[in-house]
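Troubleshooting: if your tokenizer reports a length mismatch, compare your output against this known-good record of 165 residues.
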Amino acid sequence: MFSLQHKVTIVTGSASGIGAAIAESFARAGALVYVADCNEAGGAAMVGKIGDQGGQARLAVVDIAKEADCQALAQRVLAENGNRCDVLVNNAGVGHVGSILTTEPDDLERLWQINVKGAYYLNRAILPAMIARRAGSSINLASVAGVMGMEARFAYTVTKHAVGG
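Known-good structure output:
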């Protein structure tokens, strides 16, 4: 097992799925995990689960598609932890089924806002503190779709290519 003792971490999209698994792993490794998700009930359940397992977690309800939410999350984490965030995991994302011909512009925009701009907003908000400390890691999760196209997943593939870049 790796050690994240005394590390401050943010994991977006951590109320369920891959993000939940990352949050649990980080907590088991000793990190304080900010469970950052727009699903308040799911996030609260994850914070409770981590606590029941002996870990430390705090709920952060955030819509990463909104720059102001990302700024507020960064300000909160940094204020509560001596201007420190050791690991940012941009995991949150959404999918969409549709070809280029069946994907509506609003569908593409929604995925772009969450999958790409969400990671952009949080990196812009957290990286200055990491750079000032000369320490920290930003992990931006993409998908195999970011390497090769997926049938009927036009918008998802486009946004995951952007994150991978």
